[in-house]
Structure formats: structure tokens, C-alpha cells
Amino acid sequence: INSSDLDATIFHYWFLKASGESMNSDVLTKARQFILSKGGIEAAMHMTKIWLALFGNCDWSVISPFPLFLFRNDSFYQYSYLKEWVPQWIWPHIIPIMYLRHLNNVINLGPTIDVKELYTKIPSIEIEDVKRDENPSYDLENMIEQMLGVQQSRGAFGAYTPATLYSLLALQDFKENYPHKVNATRFEEVFQKGFNYVEFMYFDQGDSSYKGVLDDGRWWDTLLVAQGLHEIGENSSKLEPVVDYIIKYGIQPNGGLAYGWEFEYMPDTDDTGMIISLMIAINKEKYKDQIEKSNDFLISMQNKGGGFGAFSKGLEESFLVRLFAGKFINSAEIFDPSSVDVTAHVLEAWGTMGYTVKDFHVSEAVHFLKKEQKEFGGWQGRWGVNHIYAVGAVIPALASINYDLKEDWAQKSIEWLIKIQNSDGGFGESVLSYNQEEWVGKGYSTPTQTAWALLALIEAEKAGLDVKDAVDRAINFLIEDHKELGRFLDKSSVGTGHRGFLYMQYPSYANSFPYIAIGRYLKLRGIRSVSYTHLRAHETGRNLVCRLLLEKKKKKIIQ
Q1: How many Å apart are CA 245 and CA 242, to the nearest integer?
Q2: Is the pTM above the cut of 0.70?
Q3: What does the pLDDT read at residue 129?
């Protein structure tokens, strides 16, 4: 199919061949033909080539080199210290990658992992380690210390499984070649924690949809599900322990909320904005002090121009990073710029706190949103797929600060939503929309995407815009979708890791956003919602959403 991915096909081909699949099998023959038709390994992303280089299938010289002084923060090197110039997710990966690249490190596992037939022109790859002195250079020792410095309490390096794997490979190389420079006890503990983390993430998740994932995002998932329960009428007293737990274990001393386990060292603005909204909804008075502290964190993170990045402030552009990491642009986001969806979630939190557009920080955020709007009326989503996610964040945010949604620019985004609504009443948008304009706003309907659109449409109807039919059609889609399985299920990629090439599935989204939308719909129609716990005790899961909307159906008949 036209949407087949070169890099994914290379990895699957590689795995199947290493697992014993014959090169002449129908599967590998077709895959190889596809790969070669797309330019072969030569056309693969930079990160794909790094993995290939590790196993002798690509020459390390192809990988962008970084001067090792960029990893030093002593003396005048502090001004070129790369950690201060790259996003949170880049640093823990780039240290071990550059260590391995500097030493031309190759793991030789034999011919079964050789995939040089995937080159359009088979290269001559010389596997030769860099000549080593008896003692490592200061720069290499420094890189090891920098690496060790990003290992977190549960064993992850920088919170990511790939970074952990890269780091363990680099540390093993250092241990084997410079044993006299290794603190055996320290390294043993580092390796044990690292392997335990990889095992936990890749193998100990049972049947969970999170098995084998990139990182742990439990605080984000938890607050979204709690928000969904609150919106459909769950008693606040039953949700307070959830909020208390998040505050105790997820919120950091600076007031920011971590995305999940191992992110404690770098809380982010998106989670923090969302938890403020949840705390206010559940018990504003009880969480008053925490709300204020978390808001101070948000204010401190606002970028020039009014927007918010995720983890960092001011990392929107850098000549130094582009100079050395330019080739990585096809494999990773190398900056953490202000994004529309994060800014909108912060803005919505401010609205729940009572701020209006008259407040400076709010006004700046609104200005950023207006500036970033696309010609057709939508915005690109940074952390969710894609324009529907962004509109579903922006419009509720504007409504929360009592902004007039009848203003042309706000209304334009609503008109775009109505225009792209699918014939079944739902909404959907493919990840292809990041790279191909013809896919913007297009995709099969999913409960998550439909819920995002509803969040905007509901606020538009409340503001007096003529969208009632679109709202009802979208709600009916959710009802019918729920009837099919007795629950909401979304197997599509709804999260965006790196725009254009890395996406994530969040099973929690189908268990949160539809309920948030349904709860707000019930309030819009003046229908009393019923406690989720009560419903679970008296209704089958299959009829849960139908029960929530039963009064709506009866009301229609009476009218």
C-alpha cells in the first residue's frame, strides 16, 4: 500500500531474517523489493542507520559526529554544553550514541543479522574499532559520567527504554576495555537497575497494551481517566484519593507534574496544566496551595511569544544544535518549541482559575494561538494526532477564559471541523496528515478523535453557533461505537512522539476523552449525569453510554 513505511519495513525484515525466515520466502522477497524501490537503506532515517551500524550493517561514518567537548560542562566548555541546548528527550540518547559512534562500536552476531542486501548499492563496510590507549581520554570518561548521571531511580536512562539500551551497550564497552577505571560495585548496580527497567517495560506488562513501550506515562493517563470519571458524574469524594496520590508521587517540589515514572527530574507543562484543572474540579479549596504552586511553575515556563514547550523554556531554536544534529531531524524532534496543544491546556487551566484575556500571561497565550493558526482554520497538534486534537484543545481553552468564540478566527476552526465530519457522524485523522496535506482532517472515525472534536463543538454550541446537528451526530457515533464492544476501543495511533515519523497508541485515551465529551454533552443538554460507580453496579458495561444518554432519548420522544 502507498502508506507503507520504509524504516518499519527494514526493521521487520531484519527481525524476520534474524529469526530464521528464509530470504527467499514470499514475505521477505516482497519486503526487500519494497525497501529497494524506496531507495534502500541509503534512504532510511538516521536513527535506523544507528541501529544498523551497531550490528555492522552500516558504516559509522555515515552517522553525524559530535565533538566530544559538547558533553563537557567544565571551564569555558559550559557555554557549549549540549545538555543546555537540546530537549529533555535528546540528551540521554545522544550521549551513548556518540560514545559508540566515536569508537566505531560493533556487535558481531554473525551472518543471520546481515541485511546488506537492502542497499541499492552494496557498500564495503569495514568493521574496525578505533585504536584505544591503555587509559581512556578525559572526554570518554566524562561521557561515561554524564551517562551515569541520567540514570533514574528505577533504572531508566533519562526515562526511555532506547536510551537505556544504548547506555548499557556503551557502559559494557567501557567496562570491557577499561576495567581498571571501573568501580565494579557501582557498575554492577547500574547494570542491574538498567536491565530490571528494560525487563519491566518490555516483558513484565502481561497483556497490557503498554508492553514494550518507549516510556512510562502513568500520571498523564491517570489524570485523564480521573477527569473522564468526574465529567460523567462520579462523586468527587471518590476521586480525591486519586488526586492525592498524584500529588504525593507525581508532583515535584517545583510544582510541576511528571509525565510518568522516571520523569520526576523533568516535570512538564502539559501534565501540570491538566492536573490544575482536575484539582479545581475535584476540590478547589482543599488543593488551593498546590494549585498556586503548580501555577507558579507554569508561569515560569512561558516562552517569549506566549506559548509553552513541553519540558523546557527557550529551546525553540539553536544554530549549535542544527550544526551538529541536523541529520537527526528526519528521526527526532531536536527542539522543544512552543506548541498549540500544550499552550491550550495551560490556558484552560488558567480559565478554571478565573483568569481572563485581560491578564498578561493569558493575553500572550491567546496571541500565540492566533499566530499559529493555519489558513484553513485548524492548528497542528504537537503531542496528539493532529489538527483535530489541536482544535479540541484550543476552543475549550478559549471558552474557559470567556473568549468570544464568534470571533472570525475561532469560528473558522469550528467551520473546518463541521466540514471534515465523516458521514457516520464521527471524526478521524491519519498520522499521514503531518506529511501529506491531502490527509489533513481525514481518516476513519475513532472514539478518541470524535471526542476531541466534540470538546470543541460543545463549546461552540454553548456560544450560540449553529452546530447542534454536528454535535448530536458525533454523540450518536459514540453511542453506536460503544454498543459494538460494550466499551470504547481505539487501536489507532493517537499520540505524537516526533511529528512525521514516531507515533504512539494511548489505550487510556479511549477510556477518558469520550467520557469527558459525553459528560460535557449531558451538561449542555441539561441532563443529570449518573455516578459511574452507580452505573457499573446496576448496568452492564455494554449499556453504560446508552444509560447515560437514556434521558436524552426519552426527552426527545416527549418533545
Answers
A1: 5
A2: yes
A3: 61
